[in-house]
Specification:
With 282 residues, the protein is an alpha/beta fold. The longest helix is centred in the first third of the chain and has 19 residues. It is globular. The termini are far apart. It binds zinc ion. The site of zinc ion has 4 residues, from helix 6 and helix 7.
């Protein structure tokens, strides 16, 4: 188990503890003992494999934790990454655990609150706040870990609450109702990538590699995403900070919001756009 620098981030290899405890959590779920299920999930997250059979997995633990810390150092070396790491609520802890094979199938990472709100008749663990768990594998890369840290930051201040962004161009596999939290994390990830002169992607629901102009064009033709940008500029400190800090980064839709909105409105009889979630009165 390794704490990463001065940040409230703990890297903990517990693959074998998860493999032993996850079936017990499933059993508790089936028996309706949901509070016990959650307590075992929390305990598993915080338990290191170092305690198993005289530290049998010592090599595996060291290798995985060293790799994840290198990934975190890469994030810290990027000014956009450093800001997100530094903003995570220090009253909380972000736990990074390895993914078991169940997760590897989806080739994705996952972030959720440790003390999740139990949902009736559902295994969903996404609602809640405070400490978080990121399930991750190094092959996903620093950009994916950065994306998850944006979610962890929002959870740490009890701000993670997905709102629906109407998806004008829904991808066949994606949901029709996009999540504002994924939108924010994707915008921050593109800023992170732009800062390092790495390739950008169009949208959370369409990961085609795209230029800044192509993405700006996409945004300024999508009223829902413009309203989401405006919402975050007004209510999310990270977005405001990004707008004012990264003045010379090529891609920064928070800094360039006024221009994007003006392009959208130029042929319309509307002075301004509302923020996402505003109920318009007719
Ligand atoms: Zn995400």
């Amino acid at each position: 188990m390794k704490k990463f620098g001065a940040y409230p981030v703990v890297v903990n290899y517990n693959l074998h503890t998860q493999l032993r405890n996850n079936p017990k959590q499933d059993d508790l779920y089936r028996m309706g003992r949901r509070e016990e299920e959650k307590q075992l999930y929390i305990k598993t997250t915080r338990t290191s494999d170092a305690g198993i059979e005289n530290n049998l997995y010592k090599q595996e633990i060291r290798q995985w934790e060293t790799t994840i810390c290198q990934c975190l150092r890469q994030i810290e070396g990027n000014p956009v990454g450093r800001i997100v790491l530094g903003l995570i609520n220090k009253q909380t802890t972000v736990w990074i655990n390895p993914e078991t094979d169940d997760w590897k199938k989806c080739s994705c990472a996952q972030t959720g609150p440790l003390n999740y709100e139990i949902q009736k008749d559902s295994v969903a663990r996404g609602a809640g706040s405070g400490d978080t768990l990121i399930l991750f594998k190094p092959e996903l890369g620093d950009d994916t870990l950065f994306h998850e840290l944006v979610h962890a930051y929002r959870y740490s201040y009890k701000k993670f609450s997905p709102m629906c962004i109407d998806n004008l161009n829904p991808s066949p596999k994606g949901p029709h109702c996009g999540s504002s939290e994924e939108f924010l994390a994707h915008q921050m990830s593109n800023l992170y990538m732009s800062q390092a002169n790495r390739p950008l992607t169009l949208d959370y629901y369409d990961a085609s590699v795209s230029s800044k102009d192509e993405i700006y064009n996409f945004l300024q033709n999508d009223v829902d995403r413009l309203e989401a940008l405006k919402y975050f500029l007004r209510h999310e400190y990270l977005a405001m900070l990004a707008a004012h800090t990264f003045t010379s980064t090529n891609y920064n839709p928070f800094r360039d919001y006024a221009m994007l909105e003006a392009n959208f409105l130029k042929d319309m009889d509307l002075p301004t756009l509302p923020e996402l979630g505003t109920v318009l009165r007719s």
